[in-house]
Amino acid sequence: MLLEETIERIRPLDRSLESEVQKRLDSLTKPQGSLGKLEELARRVSVIQGKVPPQLGRKLLFVFAADHGITEEGVSAYPKDVTAQMTYNFLRGGAAINVLARHYGVDVEVIDVGVDYEFSMMQGLCNCKVRRGTNNFSRGPAMTRPDAIQSIETGIRLVKEATPRELFLLAAGEMGIGNTSSAAAILCALTGAAPREAVGRGTGIDDMSWERKVAAIERGLELNRPNAKDPLDVLTKVGGLEIGAMAGVILGAASFHIPMVLDGFISGAAALIAQRLCPRIQDVLFASHLSTEIGHQQMLDELKLSPVLDLQMRLGEGTGACILMGLAEAAAKLLGEMATFESAGVEKKLS
User: How are strands ordered across the β-sheet holding 107-114?
Assistant: First the structure.
């Protein structure tokens, strides 16, 4: 099975290069440590790649679209139809992620992994539909276990097909009305967090809708009783198809030692699933930003990651990840292109 084969291929990083990277950083024409988090980004990318300086290449972001049956419970400020409508917007280049991707030189691939809509043949849309959305998890399992595995393997397969040797950075974004409910349920199922402490406002819902959302998630957890020791069971019972696909991209990135940039709350849920399937994936993960969704910090704590940015964002789509991809590329260029004290004929700090 592709999932099992991929997990078996994930190996710990060779950290012997860390001292070499640090030596080069310290030799550049600047006070030591003065570039702060940019130096950390450059150091981590180098170690993941096993190259000093890092080899630049393609920055690729997958945007997965899928629908959620939980929308039947009135948990979102938008109707379910918006998932398909926004997918068209991605393809036309009019969404926030398209604008940011153009600015930062990131390639975007749009994948239908579970939209409850049949798209006509459209240039730029990859049809990887597992099924037409999930079931309402407050009334039963979101999907079958084979569906969950297929969604993860879809993400793995896309990474394999993207010619990994040409990839510099990977990221995954999403579009799916109702998916903050699934992400919050995954967080609660895997960590034991109470829904009232993990459920946010998502698309900007009012107090009454938030209460419905909390109640729906509480019912779903009580009814389905997802097994915290079995991440596939959690994904099956309360997850989403795009969340599974994003977890697959994370596993694929780890198997090829490609730096993987996380986005926000939904991306964090996918990372938790991937981490529970294989803890070693943590070595390649970068937390781009801190979402205003209240459960996101809990996710990052579980992943032992610190966000680089805090822009008060909660859009999703991969927008935060796209911004960090630009910064990570800049950091790699600083490591590779800055002059050293010796090459520039600049005197070092007095000892």
Answer: 125-127, 107-114, 58-66, 167-175, 260-262, 285-287
What is the maximal distance between C-alpha atoms in the chain? Answer: 70
Per-residue pLDDT of the chain (351 residues; tens, 9 = 90+): 999 999 999 999 999 999 999 999 999 999 999 999 999 999 999 999 999 999 999 999 999 999 999 999 999 999 999 999 999 999 999 999 999 999 999 999 999 999 999 998 778 999 999 999 999 999 999 999 999 999 999 999 999 999 888 999 999 999 999 999 999 999 999 999 999 999 999 888 999 999 999 999 999 999 999 999 999 999 999 999 999 999 999 999 999 999 999 999 999 999 999 999 999 999 999 999 999 999 999 999 999 999 999 999 999 999 999 999 999 999 999 999 999 999 999 888 876
Q: How many CA atoms lie within 13 A of 23 on its CB side?
A: 6
**Residues making up the chain, counted from first to last:** 351
Q: For 57-327, CATH number?
A: 3.40.50.10210
Nearest to 190 by CA among 269, 306, 300, 278: 269
Spatial distance between the Cα atoms of 162 and 144, rounded to a whole number of angstroms = 28
Question: 341 — alpha (psi -120 to 50), left (phi > 0) or beta?
Answer: alpha
Q: Could you give the residue numbers annotated as active site?
A: 317
- Bridge partners (DSSP) of residue 107 are 60
How far is residue 220's CA from residue 237's CA, in Å, rounded to a whole number?
A: 8
Are the C-beta atoms of residues 328 and 286 closer than 8 Å to each other? yes
Q: Smallest Cα–Cα separation from 243: which of 174, 298, 166?
A: 174
Domain layout of the chain by residue ranges? 57-327
Residue 54: name the closest of 341, 338, 333 by CA: 333
Residue of 345, 158, 191, 170 lying closest to 257 (CA atoms): 170
Burial grade of 337 (CB within 10 A; 0-12, 13-18, 19 or more): exposed
Among left, alpha and beta (phi > 0; psi -120 to 50; other), residue 318 is left
Task: State how far the Cα of 311 lies from the Cα of 280, in Å rounded to an integer.
Answer: 28
- End-to-end CA distance of the chain, in Å? 58
